[in-house]
Design a protein that fits this description.
Blueprint: E1 5-7, H1 9-18, H2 25-34, E2 39-44, H3 53-62, E3 66-72, H4 75-84, E4 88-92, H5 100-119
Parallel strand pairs: 1-2, 2-3, 3-4
Amino acid sequence: MAVLNVNIDHIATVRQARRADEPDPVWAAAECELAGANGITTHLRQDRRHINDRDVQILRETVRCKFNLEMSMEEEIVRIAEGVEPQQVQPFISINSMSNAFATSFTDMYWSRAVDSAEHPG
């Protein structure tokens, strides 16, 4: 069965370009879910160019389908992800910024949670 995961980053890009409160990526995620999306993806960048901390927190609280967070392995971003606990994480690893051992252990931690959730739903 085909599934649809929607990346809402560009909605936030338009908001940031306008220097306004709209369009709101959180509202867009709700619209995507109502339209049948199976997952919402967003990318929290260190420079907050698109999605910001508020967006990530509210998305985690409101998204009912799978919430996927693409992220750098910068310490600050990792701490945010640990607090938010998205269902899926896609780390972008910069060899210059973090040790490979740390990146591997962080990825393994989330992979273990995903496997445990799949084996023991509920």
